[in-house]
Design a protein that fits this description.
The structure is a single chain. With 394 residues, this protein is mainly α. Helix content is 73%, strand content 0%. α16 packs parallel to α18. The longest helix has 21 residues.
Length: 394
């Protein structure tokens, strides 16, 4: 089920609820979402938080994407991004067929340079460019790895799969993102790369975070940390370990476990003090800034929106930070500002999210939910607010 004109999360929840012959009270009981909150969301009076969306999806026994309306096919078609998904899917499907006799791979160094360029580009928010280039690179790297198998060849292939995951998840194709992650793990095992194996479990845990399956996500976090213990000590391992703790902190926050969330944040902060800003280590952007940004996200997940908005507004992001991470932070800050009553500040943050990475912001669930919340507030906002909604397709 995809987003339709004037469709929003509340209307989709209502439609799904009625299809299952449930009253609002019954869905409230099943999801443990307060009745008053659920009725306001269905009426479009307030927006739905990620926690509420996941809880309702579990109660209705559907994917979160069904509730949020992702992928946003109409907008994807308008941006000519939908046609780029099938080639990615096809490239991921030939992983075990061996070398393609019709492909003559370039030198490993050239392939590695291209893989690194795409990793940087997707973090710069250049989703369309990366989506168009990654299928061919996957096929070339697949043939190269099968013809001359070795640690570096499999690491290269794992990198291309990770980029496919980045593209698919940013555009809302979560089924495809899961396939890309499975391929990443497959290649990492052949490379005997514990760091990439740890990253795979971290990224997989994030898929369970989105679906509200916190217990499974926490098990994956633990497994990822155990996997990283097998890697050589050093800044690379430390940065990935720290990033896993940040992801775990957000997961704990969303499950309303403040104590566990603070524990993970404290450990990430300790590691970041040693690594410094490690933006380019697997392009995870780990470091003190990312710890500060995740603290904002955790406070928002704990419904401490006032504190989240205050701390988020004081974060100073380095110039070399990836545009995609900058945009995501502004989206999270906008959500906190909206819920704390700073509607003007929230819209300014939405504008900042779009300016930093427009292609990403257009398909970002938090951006859309926050825009819906501002619209529901029925307060006079600038004329540019309506043009922003037109750009989103709202």
């Amino acid at each position: 089920m995809h987003a339709l004109p004037y469709d929003h999360t509340g209307t989709r929840i209502k439609r799904l609820r009625l299809e299952r012959h449930l009253t609002q009270r019954a869905l409230s009981d099943l999801s443990q979402v307060p009745y008053s909150t659920l009725t306001k969301i269905e009426q479009g009076v307030t927006s739905a938080s990620p926690y509420v969306i996941a809880a309702v999806a579990r109660a209705l026994r559907v994917d979160v994407a069904t509730v949020t309306g992702q992928p946003y096919v109409t907008e994807l078609r308008a941006d000519e991004l939908d046609v780029l998904i099938r080639p990615i899917r096809e490239a991921l499907d030939v992983y075990d067929l061996g070398a393609d006799p019709e492909i003559s791979p370039r030198a490993h160094r050239l392939l590695t340079d291209d893989a690194e360029t795409l990793l940087v580009a997707v973090r710069a928010g250049e989703i369309k460019r990366v989506a168009g280039a990654v299928p061919g690179l996957i096929q070339e790297a697949t043939t190269a790895a099968h013809r001359a198998p070795g640690r570096e060849a499999w690491q290269l292939l794992a990198s291309t799969y990770r980029t496919a995951y980045d593209v698919a998840s940013k555009l809302g194709y979560y089924d495809l993102a899961a396939i890309a992650l499975a391929r990443m793990d497959w290649a990492a095992q052949r490379a005997s790369d514990a760091v990439v194996g740890g990253m795979y479990r971290y990224m997989r845990a994030l898929t369970y975070l989105r679906e509200g399956e916190y217990r499974t996500g926490e098990r994956l976090v633990s497994l990822g940390l155990q996997t990283l213990e097998q890697a050589d000590a050093g800044r690379e391992r430390d940065a990935v370990t720290g990033q896993i703790h940040l992801g775990a902190a957000v997961m704990a926050g969303r499950s309303k476990d403040a104590h566990r969330a603070e524990g993970h944040l404290a450990e990430a902060e300790r590691i970041a003090a040693a690594t410094g800003e490690a933006v380019d280590v697997h392009w995870l952007a780990f470091g003190p800034t990312n710890v500060a940004v995740h603290r904002v996200s955790v406070l928002a997940e704990l419904d401490e929106y006032g504190q989240a908005a205050e701390k988020g507004g004081s974060v100073r992001i380095p110039r070399d930070w990836p545009a995609s991470r900058r945009s995501h932070h502004h989206a999270e800050l906008a959500r906190a500002q909206m819920w704390s009553g700073d509607l003007d500040g929230s819209f300014r943050s939405l504008l900042a999210a779009r300016k930093a990475a427009p292609q990403q912001a257009r398909y970002h669930q938090t951006v859309r939910e926050t825009y819906a919340g501002l619209e529901a507030a029925r307060r006079q906002l600038p004329d540019t607010f309506l043009s922003y909604g037109s750009w989103l397709g709202a």
